[in-house]
Here is the input.
Amino acid sequence: MARLHELGDIALSVIVVLVSLVYLITPWQGIDAMLSVLVINQIVLGAWRVMRQQIGILLREAPFDVEYFFLLLQEEQGSFELAALPVVLPTGELLDIQLRLRQRSERVIDTSALARLEETVREILHDQFDIEKQLRFSFGLIRQ
Here is the structure.
């Protein structure tokens, strides 16, 4: 994202230089107004993207419908069941997912079942919500 921002800044600088050259070579002054609108458009769009991302982070907005995600996970039957709605915290390119689980029967934590649950979460986020961010999981375990 930072590289894209830098490329945009470079493109705008090149446009300013080109407009200056055209203005020096020809008496046509309309080019200045037309390309100024283009530059303003790029600045406003860039500011809007940054503002929207920051507001989402400030409000801790999940990038998908958490309740629907919860229902999809409830359908997956394993040795754990979800005890509460997942907490989803977007932080930049990372998606922090906190799951509160209730273990069905075993006394020992089934780590392979946790790994399967993580894979299921990844599949649901990819298939249903088109999310391919890096995920970080944390589990809270409630014993019955």
About this structure: The CA atoms of residues 49 and 55 lie 10 Å apart. The chain has a mean pLDDT of 77. The radius of gyration is 24 Å.
